[in-house]
Amino acid sequence: MWGAVAPDRSPHPFREGTEMPTIITVSELRTILGVSVSLYPDSVLADIIDAAEQVTLPMLVKYHSAIDAVELNSNIATYHVLGTNNFSKGQSVIITGCTAPFNGTFTVLSSNDFDQDITFYEANSSLYVDGMYTAGRPFFTVAITNADISPRKVIPSGTATLSGASTYVGNPVVEQAVTALSKEIFQARNSSGGAIQGVDFQISPYALGRSLFNRVSGMLGGLLDVETMIG
Fold this sequence. Notes:
Blueprint: E1 3-5, H1 26-33, H2 42-56, E2 64-73, E3 76-82, E4 92-96, E5 104-111, H3 118-122, E6 126-129, E7 132-135, E8 139-143, E9 149-162, H4 172-189, H5 214-217
């Protein structure tokens, strides 16, 4: 019987400096906006950049997988993955949302990354591969020194992300997109009702509405993750 892992109450990984890439800096945004430190301290502009990155980066191609179950036996932790397993032996992955001792950065020891046969092996209890039977669900293992932990569900799902991959730092297209969204967020923050009045006194639609990302989606077209585009 699967147990349940309590939700992780630690800060969201997107807000941690080591997890979230800084596409543009506070000083760059301050120069573009032309505002002083006395009016808008660094913490305010940093929050605006973080918000713009959180809107942009989840929509881009990246190597990550959702984790719906974990277990630990003889200092080997196994992470059961929902959907495609994007990891291979020797890669470094960042695990969040799975509670201790499963969170952290680890090196993959083994992985049944049969992505091309995902429909087949998810429908079967086990497969005979390389002279041994392996679990029929996508998974990967890492080394964690800890007492054994019985298999348990992770609710809500945790996340495994390939360390250092697809951070988009230095990508000019992503930099321009984050800059544009940062300016929109800044203007909405300082506009009555979040709407901006033009020189012709016409009120624009709510700047932070559902069209916010669409304003840069054309520029980011070549980088969009098709799995994020539903409907």
